Amino acid sequence: MDIGALHPRLPSPVEECPDERFTGRGLRLLLKRDDLIHPSLPGNKWRKLAPNLRAAAAAGQRTLLTFGGAYSNHLRATAAAGRLLGFTTIGVVRGAELADRPLNPSLEQAAADGMRLHFVERRVYRRRADPAYLDELHGLFGDFVAIPEGGSNAAAVRGCAELGRELRGTADVVAVACGTGGTLAGLAAGLAPEQRAIGFPVLKGGFLDKATESLQHAAFGARSGDWRLDDRFHCGGYARTTPELDAFAAGFERSHGLAPDPTYVAKMLLGLTTLAEEGAFLRGATIAAVITG
Fold first, then answer.
1. Which of 76, 148, 212, 290 is most exposed, with minimal Cβ within 10 Å?
2. Domains in the chain with CATH codes
3. Are the C-beta atoms of residues 147 and 52 closer than 8 Å to each other?
4. Contact assessment for residue 121 and residue 99, using Cβ atoms and an 8 Å cutoff
5. Beta strand segments in 9-149, E
6. Alpha-carbon gap, residue 106 to 288, rounded angstroms
């Protein structure tokens, strides 16, 4: 299996984004367009999935099982990868009640790409990293390679380090939206020592600092890079929004012709803009925002 045959656009392009909320403070805003890497596997989904797909293929494994919520971009991307590369895919979906409802567009696309959806109660879903639960799933579905929620494991983090390396010498500060912390963990490790990364969690709970550091230990043996989290911009939690976020996203689209994804990217851009307005960045700094999809 040759993942390169899918012709990813790497390195992803970097675009200037003149925005008076930044330029008025002597700042330069860049957009790192990871959303343009591949139409079916955009952004961090490519960077996380590619190393896991290569490892599965090298081991002769053709079935992938992974986990996600009802609006999981990761489930949709894994299903697309299965269709494109000939893997059988199984998605364990948080929320048993969803089995009796019409599929939302995200899950509908995953199913259309051939993913078998397995809906479970939330208390069961919380066991997704428990080896005993994985044994139960093997009993249901047979042999498979398990990929964690969000695709975040040591291989994925090492894949995301390339994102940081692509941005060396380009920006002083790099911002990214965070779900599981895997992209931030790799990004920060790949940046040059004088650069720093900011992650904007899209879930509430304040758990990502430990999760991100744990992923770095698994991938690199230690905490790596200069990074921090700002968890003020989750807007109520995953897939939640607020009138402020909606107005911000609509305004950004009008100004720049890019409609930011409300689940991840819009929250990151709102956080980054707020920090600029708060004076968090030194005049003359270049800020790069990773557009993950």
1. 148
2. 3-42+153-290 (3.40.50.1100), 62-143 (3.40.50.1100)
3. yes
4. no
5. 14-16, 28-32, 63-68, 88-94, 116-120, 145-147
6. 28
Longest dimension (CA), the chain: 60
* Neighbour-count burial of 243, counting CB atoms closer than 10 A to its CB (0-12 exposed, 13-18 middle, 19+ buried): exposed
Q: Is the dihedral of CA 64, 70, 74, 75 positive or negative?
A: positive
First to last CA, the chain: 25
Instruction: Print pLDDT tens along the chain (293 aa).
Output: 677 778 999 999 999 999 999 999 999 999 999 999 999 887 788 999 999 999 999 999 999 999 999 988 899 999 999 999 999 999 999 999 999 999 999 999 999 999 999 999 999 999 999 999 999 999 999 999 999 998 999 999 999 999 999 999 999 999 999 999 999 999 999 999 999 999 999 999 888 999 999 999 999 999 999 999 999 999 999 889 999 999 999 999 999 999 999 999 999 999 999 999 999 999 999 999 999 98
- Report residue 213 as tokens: 């550091």
- DSSP letter at 141 equals H
Q: How many residues does the chain have?
A: 293
Q: Are 76 and 70 in contact (CB under 8 A)?
A: no
**Sign of the alpha-carbon torsion through 274, 279, 282, 284:** positive
